[in-house]
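Your task
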Amino acid sequence: MMTTHKEKSPKEKTKRAVVYLNGLYMGFHDNAEELVREIISKRRSGELTPNLNVSYQAGSGEIHLNTSGGRIRRPYIIVKNGKPLLTKEHIDKLKANELSWNDLIAKGIIEYLDAEEEGTLAHVATTEEELTSEHTHLEIDNSSITGVIVSTFPYPDHNSSPRLTMASSMMKQSLGLYSVNFNYRQDSRAHVQFYPQVPLVQTSSYKALNFDKRPAGQNFVVAVMSYYGYNMSDAVVLNKNSIDRALGRSVFYKTYETEERRYPGGQKDKLMVPTPNIVGYREEELYKNLDEDGIIMPEVSIKPRDVLIGKVSPPRFMEEVATFGITEEKRRENSITAKGGDYGTVDSVMLSESLAGNKLVKVKLRSLKIPEVGDKFASRHGQKGVVGYLCPQEDLPFTKDGIVPDLIINPHAIPSRTTAGHILEMLGGKVASMSGRTVNGTMFSGEKEDDLRAELKKYGFNEAGEEELYDGITGEKLKAKIFIGVIYYQRLHHLVSNKMHVRSRGPVQLLTHQPTEGKAREGGLRFGEMERDCLIGYGASQLIKERLLEESDKMIALVCANCGSLGVHDYVKRRDYCPVCKGTRMEKIEMSYAFKLLLDEIKSLGIFPRLKIGEKGK
């Protein structure tokens, strides 16, 4: 029963509370605790929506009811008198599919709590053994405190949280088998790994989510040591022979598409091999791979700028008057070409029809991506690294059994990032390699370090995972024992071959006359203010001039020696003159086009800038 605010005695004030629904004031209630109890019991009985959460703050005398979307809520088992409402009978019925998750919620056995209700009303036990009469809820599984992705990582409870955040975002970038029917799909960009493997150290969530059906990584033999400075900081050294045996190898698919568009006026595009009389005809060499219909054949090797689909379009203007006053339609070249840096083979060509009923063509390119210096690899613990060196197997260290690591990671990468889970997974992977089973690395309930150590000892290894290694170059035994194990590594889609970008000369922007920006537009690499500061620090004045002027937007401007304004050249009368004072005494001055643009912008504000001309050094 809601009431409006009236003055009450101090004793009554303690029981009263102001009620808010989704932050909106609703009124007062005389008995706060009774109201909260009633709302919770009606929610559990199904009279109120299970999406409702209530929190009572006795200190401030406020009851907050929440039904808004976007709240983070988690399921808990309800506990009464120290005993969970979920019994073995319910679990058996769940296994037999006689009960569903929603039935448990409807029967008031499980309920969802948000952060507010959990913080004010709930007393949660993590295990059944620690339940007391004070507890109100029981955790279903301790690993449910994390998200879906982190629950698939082994031993995440041994890592710092920022590393788990990094690992989560990197798992989304890993290359694997994203779809079994990738051959029939026309994705705009896709990566498929050659030999994806299931990790040797798994979690219960990994299996429950069927991630083992779509693996995205491989189990590497990893040694934790430095190797002649090639794996400084986050760099890693890869075994070249392992790569030759297809370790981390993947294929990259890219799809180009076009359609015969219809234009107003009944005109339309035409797919064909363009003829030399067409405006914008390219070099004949670029059309050599096209079939009669203007579409490239499958399994043809292509390089950048090669034409994949020949297409001619109607002119941008309806008609042009030719000689003798005859109007003729000049068609223009509008072919689809491979972009810069795209080397590969035509994998497949698909002919179809668009929604508008036009002819649609999709050409899928395939290129082999073999790991090389600059490619990115990462474990499932946020330990990312770039390949610093591909080392021949004969130069890598080896164990007494002849085991050579596939990857060498720097020891400094582990302690400073507190990723003990990385070490534990290496230990677990080593045990799995010897025992032939998958090791359970589930958070809070996985196989313990002591058990893994004991099992390693049973197989004749050092229980700490360390082994004596021999230098592959000298053959001498290394003085220190090296920690070596097996761990799941992912190849990420940041491939150096897709990022590589150079330019000597190319297109410039219309407004500033400076080189365009970005790889797709054949742009230049930005030489920014901080780079300029470095050159100033070195005193490399000629290099600054080259970078910021000659290689950028150098121009020769006419400046009036009389009034200091910019002059113009009259091409008809072949003379230079000043449009302001009509003077003809002009000087040719070298300047950046961006500076000339600035002068024009200042003029547009109604300010007249003058350039004073004088000799250098005066």
